TrEMBL record:
NCBIfam families: therm_gnt_kin (TIGR01313)
Any one GO molecular function term: gluconokinase activity
Family: Belongs to the gluconokinase GntK/GntV family.
Known catalytic reactions: D-gluconate + ATP = 6-phospho-D-gluconate + ADP + H(+)
Pathway the protein contributes to: Carbohydrate acid metabolism
InterPro entries on file: P-loop_NTPase, Therm_gnt_kin
Official protein name in the record: Gluconokinase
Length: 185
């Protein structure tokens, strides 16, 4: 496997699909965009793939349940699988809060690596107060945290301190990716 330098980091030639995960406001869209740009690969925001009914439900202040999320996760899973089958790595932003959601997301692409933007409710709440979102009210942050299941030992993963600056997070993830296959799980 030949590596090549990107922004001073060494990036593996065979980049796996990456899912940037975490609660609402943790930085998935910001970091996912930056990571994909650094790698020169496509970025997809899971927010854009929610069925209209899911967006309406969240906008009305109600958290999604498993049944709401299942078809949305399937759309994302199939997209990742199709891109991988065509040899195109991809970065996806998707909350991926529960283990069973993550298993559904990786069903067609087991090499997928989750990048969890991990941090305290306080800083995320503070960041949310400064942003405008298409449909997600800040009042759903508590339910996001109560739904979140930490990544488990057998999941392919990079866990990131979300208080770092975006550039530092991207560098950290690229460094981890260059060794993750050897270190799996
Ligand atoms: N590492 C970071 N440092 C400082 N601010 C950040 C960082 N990551 C994201 N933000 C800011 O936090 C807010 C939420 O980020 P966003 O990417 O929309 O999160 P998500 O997609 O997980 O909801 C945005 O205003 C964004 O600019
Ligand atoms: O599974 C969910 O409950 C939703 O996907 C949620 O996690 C997501 O956060 C919203 O789509 C809002 O979008 P932001 O994550 O960008 O706030």
């Amino acid at each position: 496997m030949s590596d090549h330098p990107v922004h001073g980091n060494t990036v593996p030639a065979n980049v796996p699909p990456l899912i940037v995960m975490g609660v609402s406001g943790s930085g998935k869209s910001t970091i996912g965009t930056a990571l994909a740009a650094a790698l020169g690969i496509e970025f997809i925001d899971g927010d854009d793939l929610h069925p209209r009914a899911n967006k309406a439900k969240m906008a009305a202040g109600h958290p999604l349940n498993d049944e709401d999320r299942a078809p949305w996760l399937e759309i994302i899973a199939e997209r990742i699988g199709a891109e991988l089958a065509d040899g195109r790595p991809i970065v996806v932003a998707c909350s991926s809060l529960k283990r069973k959601y993550r298993d559904q997301l990786t069903a067609y692409a087991p090499s997928t690596v989750f990048v969890h933007l991990d941090g305290a409710r306080g800083i995320i709440s503070e960041r949310q107060s400064h942003r405008v979102h298409e449909y997600m009210p800040n009042t759903l942050l508590d339910s996001q945290f109560s739904t979140l299941e930490p990544l488990q030992d057998d999941e392919r993963k990079v866990i990131v301190d979300l208080t770092m600056k975006p550039d530092a997070i991207v560098s950290f993830v690229l460094d981890r990716l260059s060794v993750i296959d050897a270190a799996t799980p």
